[in-house]
Structure formats: C-alpha cells, structure tokens
Write a structure and sequence with these properties.
This protein is an alpha+beta fold and 76 residues long. Helix content is 25%, strand content 39%. The mean pLDDT is 92.
C-alpha cells in the first residue's frame, strides 16, 4: 500500500483477501501507471522470499498506464 501511495499515481486501489480451506489469497490491484521491471526492487524481492518460505507464490501483472495487480497465495 505504501508503494501504491508513493509511486503508482493511482486513483483507486482494491484489496481482497480470501481464506479458504487450504490457502489464503491476497490480491492488491490499482489503476495507476503500472510498474517497470518487476524483477528488481527490495520490496518485491522480500515479498517473494517471504511467500516462498511458507510454500506460497506471488504473481505480478502490470502494463504501462494500466495499473498493477499483485496476487499472493499462501497454503494454510
């Protein structure tokens, strides 16, 4: 959320969390400017590392001027 506020130039942010039998899913999406290189940056690297430590995954979808969506899934 901090990165969205600082960098995305978004007017809308959606956060959804679902707890289902066997996993927790978190989705954060915005309507901002999108991201450049999603393989760099300590924040995204840290997010991926923490998810992997507990057997989870992180998926990032972004395009210039079409916002960004980050999906995290963690097994319970």
């Amino acid at each position: 959320m901090t990165n969205v506020r600082k960098h995305a130039r978004a007017t809308r942010v959606t956060v959804a969390m679902v707890y289902d039998d066997g996993h927790v899913s978190l989705s954060i999406s915005d309507d901002g400017q999108g991201m450049g290189d999603v393989s760099s940056g300590y924040g995204l690297l840290g997010l991926r590392e923490r998810a992997q430590l507990v057997g989870g995954t992180v998926n990032i979808e972004t395009a210039p001027n079409q916002g960004c969506r980050i999906d995290v899934e963690i097994p319970t």
